Amino acid sequence: MTTAAPHNRCLTPNAPRLETERLILRGPEPKDAEKVIAFYADKDRSWGFGGPISRADAWRWFALSVGHWSMRGYGFLTMELKETGEACGMTGIWDPDGWPEPEIGWLMFDGFEGKGLAMEGALRARQWAFEDLGFTTLTSNILPGNDRSVALAERMGAWFEKAYDNPHMGHDHMYRHPGPEAAT
């Protein structure tokens, strides 16, 4: 007989708990899966991540994201509003097999765009990558036409470096973030 995992159990014990003014960044929990599935079902929101995709494939992406922590020792963190405890998006460091180098990524759940939360969370995740993980460089890989992500990367100080062939997404653009000395 199997029992269900507790709904609020962190699936990535090595994930840090980071804070910003409005957010807690924490490891993914089982309850976050439904938000990720909803994100991937929304074609307007998920196309920059290869969506829309089926519920089963979105669940697999969530499980892959959890497994990334075991393989790399870092990954995506769930962004949770301090005030309400509601999950509003994800951000973190992503480097699956075939990626040109580690990247900082972000995604926002429905209803949380346009509030500065993605930037707040991504800046904190980048600080964690530089200060705690020892990274000296990071990129953001952004599909052409994803103007909102480009604008966010540029507000974070990143610049277009090159186009390349992403093994999963096809034609992609790499934005280079400033190094630890400039990215405070």
Automatic annotation (TrEMBL):
SUPFAM superfamilies reported in the protein's UniProt record: Acyl-CoA N-acyltransferases (Nat) (SSF55729)
Domain N-acetyltransferase: start-end pairs: 22-158
Enzyme class: transferase
Keyword Signal annotated: no
GO molecular function annotations of the record: acyltransferase activity, transferring groups other than amino-acyl groups
Protein name: Putative ribosomal N-acetyltransferase YdaF
Keywords from the named record: Acyltransferase, Transferase
EC number: 2.3.1.-
Pfam families named in the record: Acetyltransf_3 (PF13302)
Record flagged with keyword Acyltransferase: yes
